[in-house]
Here is the input.
Amino acid sequence: MNKRLFITLALVTALTCTACGKTDNNQSPVTSAIKNDTVTTSYDNIAVTTPQTTHKDDKIPITTTSNIPINTTIKAVIDTTVITTQTEVITAPTTVTSEAITPQSATTVSTSVETTQPETTNPAQLLRPVGSPPSPDDPDYAPAPIQYNIEGITYIQGALIANKSYSLPSNFNPGLDKTCQTQFNKMVNDAYAKEGLQLKFGSGFRSYNDQYNIYNNFVARDGQAAADSYSARAGYSEHQSGLAIDVNTIDHTFDGTPEAAWLENHCHEYGFILRYPQGKENITGYQYESWHIRYLGTDLSYAVHNSGLTLEEYFGIDSYYH
Ligand SMILES: [Zn+2]
Here is the structure.
């Protein structure tokens, strides 16, 4: 992690925790005041306003740093303007020491798990856009999503992440997820029974080596820049996760068909999202794919679908080759 990002993250952590009174950073603000839902903290006459947040999980210690000159940290915040009242800050790096974390449940961990955060040139991307701004008074309010890494695989809120920023180990070879397969079959049956539409399984799990060959063939045909816009490099494909399916023709002849429209509007009812929507190429890292769906389970698929955000925006992560 580069020094500037770390400094920024350290400050963001400190500021966030200041908001809920949990900071153990030795840089005490000169003044601070709580008004409505915001906390205004002054550092040497520079006011920083943060949303007031609540940490519900007191078991998660926040890693902080010390001995950073105050002028340096303030400059980092001002440069990137990372604090606003409409965004929620992801506090990273964070060390999770709860007792057990599994991909299905973020409440448990058998051993201490160190979270990771990829380097980025734009720390503002670490902010999670908030579809409906959370309020600590809301009974459904949840703190920032927990990101953790198990054996080289990144999970956020229990969802495996595979994009250009978050790779999978070359030996990760799970095959197509059984629940994903079952839910896909159910969706195919319902689309036909209710609407007479024909959805077909096109492609599912692809191993690291499968993707290696596919990607290199595209590079040989179209060049690397073009290939990167529509094909993942080996280790970066969501298909290697066993949680992605391409339907029907797996090309743009599927765009605009009744099947494509139905898939976009209904796949979340079965736990899927359309992963690479139109107009979000710069966020997802891939061109529009009307045929590529990702299984998340219905809790997350409804939440992401209803937010109108891509998975990257929903979790506040980026997708580009570092
Ligand atoms: Zn695909």
Remarks:
- Residues 1-134 have pLDDT under 50 and may be disordered.
- The longest strand covers residues 289-295.
